[in-house]
From TrEMBL:
KW Hydrolase (keyword) present: yes
EC number: 3.6.3.42
Native source species: Streptococcus gallolyticus
Protein name, entry field: ABC transporter
Gene: ndvA
Source taxonomy: Bacteria, Bacillati, Bacillota, Bacilli, Lactobacillales
Keywords: Hydrolase
GO MF annotation: an example: ATP binding
Domain ABC transporter residue range list: 81-145
InterPro entries: ABC_transporter-like_ATP-bd (IPR003439), P-loop_NTPase (IPR027417), Type_1_exporter (IPR039421)
Coiled coil spans: none
Pfam assignment, any one: ABC_tran
């Protein structure tokens, strides 16, 4: 029932504008190691940082995620996560295991910025996720939700079918 309450609260919430300005773009690298944005799909991703003076810098998307002293609550009256610290290396697989309501889904929703935190910082590739456009942030991350009653083979089959 608590999950349904959260869904209805989301449906009633005002639409939030995306104030992120860092974008994920296709890139190539020249002989000197400089990244350049390109239209075609290259298999290389870079973060595009526009600056106030009109210049743009790029850095390669590599993927570390860091939580630093993160505190979060669905409302300001009751915090459900307190002072969470986490570092995930690029390509590292992390499993959040716990009972219902322990915060597993909440943590992944915070990484994807479905909610904003009350305190602390979440960085992706060294960038505060509040500065990254939400669509680009979500496009760059992968998640696998696991139902205990399905086999690993079934879950991997579902992923491969949906990726086609």
């Amino acid at each position: 029932m608590a999950g349904a309450d959260r869904v209805f609260n989301l449906l009633d919430a005002e639409v939030e504008t995306d104030e992120g300005y860092v974008e994920l773009v296709n890139a190539t690298e020249d002989a000197a190691g400089n990244l350049q944005e390109v239209e075609e799909t290259t298999g290389m991703w870079a973060w595009k940082h526009p600056h106030e003076d009109g210049t743009v810098t790029y850095h390669k998307q590599e993927g570390p995620v860091t939580f630093s002293d993160v505190t979060f609550g669905y409302n300001d009256d009751k915090m459900v996560l307190h002072d969470i610290n986490l570092f995930a290396e690029p390509g590292q697989k992390i499993a959040f295991v716990g009972s219902t309501g322990a915060g597993k889904t909440t943590i992944t929703n915070l990484i994807n910025r479905f909610y904003d935190i009350q305190e602390g910082k979440i960085h992706y590739d060294g960038i505060n996720i509040r500065k990254i456009k939400k669509a680009d942030l979500r496009r760059s991350l992968g998640r696998l939700y696991c139902k205990i009653r399905t086999s690993l083979q079934e879950r991997l089959w579902i992923i491969s079918v949906t990726d086609v």
